Amino acid sequence: MANVRTLITAEQIAEKLAEMGRQITADYQGKDLLVVGVLKGAFMVMADLARHIDLPVEFDFMAVSSYGASTQTSGVVRILKDLDQEIAGRDVLIVEDIIDSGLTLNYLMKSLKVRKPASLEVAALLVKEGIQRVPLDVKYIGFRIGPEFVVGYGLDYAGKYRNLPFVGVIED
Ligand code: IMP
Ligand code: MG
Questions:
Q1: Domain boundaries 19-65+76-146, corresponding CATH code
Q2: pLDDT digits 0-9 by tens, 62-109
Q3: Domain coordinates of the chain in residue numbers?
Q4: Ligand 1, atom 5: closest residue by C-alpha
Q5: What's the pLDDT at 73?
Q6: What is residue 62's three-state secondary structure?
Q7: Which of 3, 46, 138, 157 could pair covalently with 37 via S-S, beta carbons 3.0-4.6 A apart?
Q8: How far apart are the first and last CA of the chain?
């Protein structure tokens, strides 16, 4: 799309996810790994990361939403779709597209922790630097970016741009 300036190329993303997949494969040897994608944003990361995890892994999805369609997080999170399965005793890895204020993830982790997983970690393609209001321990980070609003590779602006194969910034 003509009005989107590329910030991270498709090649850079592919390389990073391959590396992340190798790391996850090494870290979860012999574990009962369940990878949980947070819809809708994480659908592309999930699909590409999954192909680099060489383990007998399972996948599930949750859908959450901050209220409204603005570019600011409201801090109010709704679970639109919960997990299909129980996670007690399992090694759970949450996959996120982007962590901004950390409020969404903080809420999600709290609601999953009470279900007593054996472990609970996070992999995020993008983390916005200097923005996080909630201190979070993110085990796998793809790229750290500045405070600008980005789209593409699953990330939307008012529902659009998710299909871009790269991450970029809307201009004009
Ligand atoms: P947080 O709760 O502030 O960490 O924001 C979480 C959610 O807001 C992300 O999972 C995205 O869905 C959305 N979000 C935050 N920053 C951006 C952005 O730059 N582009 C698109 N979506 C974003
Ligand atoms: Mg998201």
A1: 3.40.50.2020
A2: 998 876 555 555 566 889 999 999 999 999 999 999 999 898 899 899
A3: 19-65+76-146
A4: 100
A5: 59
A6: strand
A7: 46
A8: 13
Phi/psi of residue 80, each to 5°?
-90, -35
For residue 25, report the distance from its CA to the centre of ligand 2, in Å.
24
CA nearest ligand 1 atom 22, residue: 155
Active site members: 100
Torsion of CA 131, 133, 137, 142, to 10 degrees: -20
Distance CA 46, CA 37 (A): 6
Q: What is the mean predicted confidence (pLDDT) over 135-141?
A: 91
- Greatest distance between any 2 Cα atoms in the chain: 50
Looking at residue 77, what is its pLDDT?
82
Look at the alpha carbons of 118, 108, 63, 10 in this order and tell me if their dihedral is positive or negative: negative
Strand order in the sheet with 150-151: 4-8, 167-170, 150-151
Checking if the pLDDT of 28 tops 80, the result is yes
Average pLDDT along the chain? 92
Q: How far apart are CA 172 and CA 113, in angstroms?
A: 42
